[in-house]
Amino acid sequence: MYFLERVDHTVKRMKSQAANVLTLLNLTLGAIAIVCILNGQLELSFWFIFLCALFDRFDGMIARKLQIESEFGKQLDSLCDLISFGVAPAFLIYEAVLFEFGLPGIVFILIYIICGAIRLARFNITEFEGHFTGLPITLAGCFVALSYLTVDLLPHYLFMFLVLILSFFMLSNVSIQKR
Amino acid sequence: MYFLERVDHTVKRMKSQAANVLTLLNLTLGAIAIVCILNGQLELSFWFIFLCALFDRFDGMIARKLQIESEFGKQLDSLCDLISFGVAPAFLIYEAVLFEFGLPGIVFILIYIICGAIRLARFNITEFEGHFTGLPITLAGCFVALSYLTVDLLPHYLFMFLVLILSFFMLSNVSIQKR
After folding, report:
1. Which parts of the chain span the membrane according to its record (chains A, B) (predicted)?
2. In chain A, how many domains are there?
3. Where residue A40 sits, what CATH number does that domain have?
């Protein structure tokens, strides 16, 4: 009887932490993406950011399905998003293209990371009502990471514009329906 | 008269944003520290993290002095801290020493970044009562960055222990008085 109670307790605890474990997995993949950039493995870094995007879909979904949404989970999610969809894609595109432009290249990724942080801080203090105000950093990060695939196809100055436009949309008041 | 009113209004707005501007400056310096690591300029990266620590002292102090503490400022501060005192020092010590250990070196900095994120998320959802529970990531980040200065003096495996011990203390219940 005691054993069954313990199992039940453990299952409940695991359930309550499932979404947070996925969030931390997301953070881990984002940090590994940065390690890959440091080691010059840009394509591998792209795939890790791609995995982050997949896991990011799951953690929120699981939290809502199991009804285990928490303030702690929301905070953790934003912190992880800044790394996986802010820092990692910014440095991926910097190492792939923007480093060629010297200081302006650095300034553009700094603007992207700053706008991402402001977007996340703003999101954390507002009640969610079914739609996002401003482009979510998760989407912006996916666009930046996907743009890496077009590095050999497009003129390189276009990537500066892309980063700037995404930064602007993160801070804009554009309303985006959550799916 | 109108002119004086405008000046007064602008001064008030600048005052209310002063702490947030310092926080964003902190984030900028942290992101530049990562750029330096990418470019192999580890010593320069150390100095940028050192500047982050200086600015981090100021923004909270200014917010309290001008009585402009806000929930948005608190959120922004945590997001910036994760980059300037989590990601930046972790990758500095990785590139300086821990890369030598291969996969274990990567695992240790991942543990550090994950513990830092959990520490910050926990801090964000608790009311501050004059003391911190768990080592603040700002202090942990300073220790990791300072340890860079001893890379040529100490056996390299000690840096793995340092990172692990700091990670443990960030999640511990040790109480640290705020100064």
Report:
1. 21-40, 101-120, 132-151, 157-176
2. 1
3. 1.20.120.1760
Contact A84, A32 (CB under 8 A): no
Between A72, A95, A125, which is nearest B122 by CB?
A72
Which tens digits make up the pLDDT trace of A30-80?
999 999 999 999 999 999 999 999 888 877 777 777 776 788 888 899 999
Residues counted in chain A: 179
A146: closest CA of chain B, how far (Å): 21
Residue B88 forms contact with A (CB below 8 Å): no
Give me the DSSP letters along A71-127: HHHHHHHHHHHIIIIIIHHHHHHHHHTGGGG-HHHHHHHHHHHHHHHHHHHHHHTS-
Q: Can you give B82-125 as a three-state secondary structure string?
A: HHHHHHHHHHHHHHHCHHHHCHHHHHHHHHHHHHHHHHHHHHHC
Tell me, what's the ipTM? 0.87
B120 contact A CB<8A: yes
User: Which of B110, B117, B125 is nearest residue A71 as measured by Cβ atoms?
Assistant: B125
pLDDT digits (tens, 9 = 90+) for B52-104: 998 888 777 777 777 767 888 888 999 999 999 999 999 999 999 999 999 99
Q: First and final CA of chain A: distance in angstroms?
A: 44
Dihedral class, residue B130 (left if φ above 0, else alpha if ψ from -120 to 50, else beta): left
* Local confidence band at B29 (pLDDT 50, 70, 90 cut-offs): very high
Q: What is the span of the domain harbouring residue A172?
A: 2-177
Contact call for A76 and B32, based on CB within 8 A: no
| Identity of the residue in A110, A120, A125 whose CB atom sits nearest the CB atom of B28 | A110
pTM of this structure? 0.89
